[in-house]
Amino acid sequence: MTIEYKKDGSGWHRWDLHLHGPGTKLANGYGDASDENLRAYLEILEDSDVQVFGITDYFSFDSYFAVSAEYARLYPEGKKIFIPNCEFRLTETVSSDGRNVHTHVLIDPALASETKLRTLLSDLQTHKTRDGLRLRCSDLTSREEYHQATISLSDLQTALKKVFPDETAYMIVTAAGNDGLRGVDTKSARSKSISDELDKASHAFFGSDKSTGYFLSTNRYEDGSPSEKKPVYSGSDAHAMSDLARLSGDEAGFPPTWIKADLTFRGLRQTLFEPKGRVHIGERPTVLERINQDATRFIAELRVNQIAGYAAANGSWFKNVSIPFNPELTAIIGNKGSGKSAIADILGLLGESRQQEHFSFLTDEARNRKFRQKGYAENFTATVTWASGTERAKKLDEDVDELRPEAVKYLPQNYFENLTNEIEVKAFRKEIEEVVFSHVEESDRMGKSTFSELEDLKTAQSKSDISTLKVRLSELNIEIVELEQQADPSTSARLKEQLKQRCEEYRVLENSKPAAVEKPEEETPEQRAVSEEIERTRALQATITERSTQAVDRLSAIKTDLVSLGSLKESVNALDAHVKQSKEELRPICTRFGLDIDLIVSHKMGTASIDAKAAELAAEVKALEVEHAGEFIEGTDFGALTGVPALRKAHQYLADKLKALQETLSAPQRRYQRYLQTLSEITKKMEEVMGEDDSPKPGTIKDLDARIRYIEEDLQAQLDTRYSDRDGLARSIFNSKEKVRSFYEGLKSSVEEKLATVSSEEFDVSIDASFVPSHEFPGRFLEIVTQTARGPFRGAVEGRRDLERRMTDVSWNDVETILSFAKTIIADVKAEDISKQIKDVKRLYDLLFSLEYFEPRYELRLGGKNLNQLSPGEKGLLLLVFYLHLDKEKTPLIIDQPEDNLDNDSIFTVLARCIRDAKKSRQVILVTHNPNLAVGADAEQILHVTLDKADNYKFTYESGSIENPRINDAIVKILEGSKPAFVQRRLKYQIK
Known about the structure:
single chain; Rossmann fold; TIM Barrel; six-stranded mixed sheet
């Protein structure tokens, strides 16, 4: 018999390992093994979907000999496989009614020569006797003898080992149902013990899907010893032509058995090592349904060839290469430089992967360009064929077309290394966010296609609130900085010095008052008239001076008001535009629900009153700035003057007039008038130095005294109030950020459930929605600090280390510890001269209290450590777990050598399990040199590639299943791993 091994490896096929043939020794409903009966029997088998049959007979292989010989005659090109199955009744009983257990021996047809099979039956004695001698199985002749005969399990094992020293040549498969172990008398310790021993001696069991869970458990035995997981097969147990209808898989009580393996006995034995993943009882396996319904997401074949006319001047490389791919897990293996990454890169190129910059074989990076250099890649074309039949072709010097959707998810080795060595893990967290998004229910995505789009939608109000709060915080920090400057002891000392100086000025002015001059008693009428005119003029000048001061103050106030009115009008116009824009943004959704946004939101804004007020003030400004036309003369109405220039001109006119009048006085009158003038001037200056009672001007004695008193009595209370207000704003910002974090929190429940299934004591992985400090914060903070100045952050290295130490003590999910962190920094800086240490105090306050140096992020934890604390290998393991176990994308996942930074224990215990889960929902293509991934994850297909540089860079490959002997040899030759993994692989390789 010629064995055909499929290049695409292990596939799901229908197997029926328990059906009887014509002439079967007991319960024969077919009739004898005549040519007619055999032909009718084989026609049904040939037309069925079952590919492998276990032809069964009691204590005999006669049915197998007859059926296999007739099939070879009738169907010389037939593809059906027949395995000899001998059914024995054991001497051992486990049921309360004393029924004997039935067990089957399946023999590798490649080794099942007629001589060996008859020798086995000849060597095997039954409990029956004839003429005082025990009958051998080969001695049984009558129906009654076949019905009564039993053998012991130990005799069966001895005979098998004698005839087939290679134990991989056969399998003992015991019945689990009516005539098997599940009918054990649970009240009998003896029966349970016999059942356990039969279980231990059996390789597998015949039963239904109801028995599968029991035999996959590891705690079946009564004595508490661990039990091996073993496969269960369902068979039709056909005894008549009518029973063959069970081969359809539609007959109740006889569900079909699907086995994922090569159509060989070695393939069947592979189920002993993968009983859960390789055997399925029931409807078509899910992967077959997925291929049928989602064929655009399975790579069926890759073809690579030289272009016409290429004479292999720069190497043969790929010539007529055609590689089929298994729909589940393909492991690409080979020695270093054998072309493993070449296949992955080509698939990535044809699948429009967005990771082209990280390709290693098709790299376009100047310093590492290999195959993409001129004269190479342009001479080769590649074509990928999808299971749907559609194809995509490119020359290997072409680039990824980013206008096309990404048809594969490719993790090149370089990308993997960059991601896991990334200091701040920004890209890593983005990958996590997108995986989390893939678990969000479609109805909860609100029409958004990415995590960031949904985040923007759901957190827009919170982020707007934070922005508004930051504006208020900035304004408050301006006040605080000003108040702190006032509270600085140097400020009080400086004011006191200014007050002292002003008091001295006041004293000097007081002392500079002229000695009193009596008013002359005797005056001529003319002199008296001049004196009276001088007094009237001086009084008028004083009035003009007062009015001029008031006019200047009013003019200044109006101009300030006009600026404010201008800002008000701009704000109103901006508000109007914002409302209109917001209404238009809301209009589509209102229209969708049949609502009128104009009825929901109505607004009326007008700036006419602002314009009127501005015009009124502008007119007043004009009046206050008016000049006086002409010259002042006697009889000018000074009371009608309003403009500042006119009042100043009038003041000068009166000053000149006073001077002229004084020139006409007598010497006594002149002295008296000079005295009055000087006294008036000094008194005016003293008033200016002293200041007014109600609102003294800055720099006056009363102003300075009030400021000093304010600093000493009231300032600290105001500062404390501002500090409290700032804390309140920071808490409000935190609360708004908490709302953003709650968005993250709300999306992770399904991810947590999935992580729980892969988490273990050795691999304790969890996900949390946490506030995470920005990696940029130390740099932003230290930009504000003069690190050469004396203080807590002095020194570039020491200062950063001190800040990072402080950050490690912060609980970023607790606003009070964050505020304590900020306040402690400020207090420690203030212990020295803050002005020498901090370049911009307000900027420092804005940074610390705006809380913009941490953001909500998904924090993946491994063994209690967060991402920033993990080694590249640990981060790599988490990334792979996410893609393999959590990513809900259905496109093929291609991973190039992820294991380089991972230890074997992690690979064997975690990744292999995750890969097994991943291939249930998507095609996985894995480039690896680690057996724990290739074999530990039970790859359906092994693709062994070679690139013979000595033979002009000729690329070749072999492909097939693990159970394929040639592939088996390649795996053993190329791959190696930890001892536990090697022991498991040794069993899978079926090496003695």
